[in-house]
């Protein structure tokens, strides 16, 4: 037996007439003509295969079948309204789940603050954070394991697009009692006389790139390389070495009591970027959150959260 097919307009008309027991009053409520309401009821009766109302010249009353069908009609209309609302939410990006990958500092500081701000605008969107290494960010987006990723600049292939969020300068972190803490600003040449620890090969490569073109005597060579920035910062906090990183780690570094100093000649910036799939479509909720992040970054919200304002006071 086939399922009857009826429209929300037909159910609206039936429930309205059943409520006021008048085609004229129901037409006023629905902003339709009486003939239009009568047509909708007739179409619904044909679809259902039974009469919904007993009509006379003096009154309109629900038939026995109409009374039995009314609760189901009201329930069906409610569920249709909910389905329409859910579809509109998905279409407009106000519901759904968004998966975002980010390395430790961004995942623990930048992303939670941005999600908090976005939730005030789109409370139905759920953003899930996936902790990731910097090296795996692009692959996670390319494979479709996440909807997007946030992290420092990386090389991308054709299946991933990179869009800039905000720049962050490379800075020095040292213990308050370290000799470099007494300087307002330092140069890269200053670092060659002190023990330096780098966080991951990615940081080591960036330090080497910054010193490109300088003579061997001016080379900055890390004494050690660790996997995590938190380890490098911990070593610096114990005054065993200094470390360099983009300033966006300041929320973590400052909590360890480290001193931040700008590095000049030259001052080198690192771009924090948003990585999105370029060969597959994203959900409306993911697209909405991505656009929010791009606008938020341009307004400087990200750099304020990650401590660049405090960095300016150190210059």
**The biggest beta sheet, please?**
10 strands, mixed
The tally of strands reads 12
How are helices and strands ordered from N to C? HHHEEHEHEHEEEEHEHEHEEHHH
Could you tell me the radius of gyration in angstroms? Answer: 32 Å
Count of runs of 4 or more consecutive helical residues: 12
Concise overview:
The protein is an alpha/beta fold and about 325 residues long.
Plain-language structure description:
The chain has 315 residues and is α/β, with parallel strands linked by helices. The chain is 45% helix and 22% strand. The strands form 2 sheets. Strands 3, 4, 5, 6, 7, 8, 9, 10, 11 and 12 form a 10-stranded mixed β-sheet that branches. A two-stranded antiparallel ribbon has the order 1-2. Strand 8, helix 7 and strand 9 form a beta-alpha-beta unit. Helix 1 packs across helix 3 (34-48), helix 1 packs across helix 4 (64-91) and helix 2 (23-30) crosses helix 3. The longest helix has 28 residues, at 64-91. It is rod-shaped and about 105 Å long. Mean pLDDT is 85; it is low at 308-315.
Q: What key phrases describe this protein's structure?
A:
single chain; 315 residues; alpha/beta; ten-stranded mixed sheet; two-stranded antiparallel sheet; 12 helices; 12 strands; 22% strand; rod-shaped; disordered C terminus
Topology:
Elements (H helix, E strand, L loop, with lengths): L7 H13 L2 H8 L3 H15 L4 E3 L4 E3 L1 H28 L4 E7 L1 H18 L3 E7 L5 H7 L4 E5 L7 E15 L10 E3 L8 E4 H11 L13 E3 L2 H9 L4 E5 L3 H6 L3 E6 L4 E9 L6 H15 L2 H5 L2 H6 L2
Parallel strand pairs: 3-4, 3-5, 7-11, 8-9, 8-10
Antiparallel strand pairs: 1-2, 5-12, 6-10, 6-11, 6-12
């Amino acid at each position: 037996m086939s399922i009857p097919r009826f429209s929300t307009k037909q159910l609206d008309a039936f429930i309205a007439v059943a409520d006021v027991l008048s085609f004229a009053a129901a037409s006023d409520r629905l902003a339709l003509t009486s003939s239009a309401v009568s047509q909708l009821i007739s179409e619904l009766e044909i679809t259902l295969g039974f009469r919904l109302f007993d009509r006379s010249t003096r009154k309109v009353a629900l038939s026995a079948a109409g009374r039995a069908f009314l609760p189901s009609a009201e329930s069906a209309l409610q569920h249709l309204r909910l389905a329409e609302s859910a579809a509109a939410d998905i279409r407009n990006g106000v519901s759904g789940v968004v998966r975002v990958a980010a390395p430790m500092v961004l995942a623990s500081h930048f992303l939670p603050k941005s999600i908090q701000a976005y939730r005030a605008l789109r409370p139905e969107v759920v953003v899930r954070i996936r902790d990731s290494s910097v090296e795996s960010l692009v692959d996670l987006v390319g494979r479709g394991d996440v909807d997007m990723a946030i992290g420092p600049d990386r090389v991308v292939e054709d299946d991933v697009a990179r869009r800039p969020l905000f720049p962050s300068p490379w800075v020095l972190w040292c213990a308050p009692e370290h000799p470099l803490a007494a300087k307002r600003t330092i140069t890269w040449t200053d670092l060659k006389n002190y023990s330096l620890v780098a966080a991951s090969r990615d940081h080591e490569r960036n330090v080497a790139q910054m010193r490109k073109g300088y003579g061997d005597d001016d080379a900055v060579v890390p004494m050690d390389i660790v996997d995590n920035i938190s380890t490098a910062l911990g070593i610096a906090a114990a005054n065993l070495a200094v470390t360099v990183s983009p300033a966006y780690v300041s929320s973590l570094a400052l909590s360890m009591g480290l001193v931040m100093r700008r590095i000049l000649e030259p001052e080198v910036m690192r771009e924090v970027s948003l990585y999105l799939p370029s060969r597959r479509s994203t959900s409306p909720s993911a697209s909405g959150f991505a656009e929010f992040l791009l606008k938020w970054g341009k307004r400087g919200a990200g750099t304020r959260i990650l401590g660049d304002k405090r960095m300016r006071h150190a210059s």
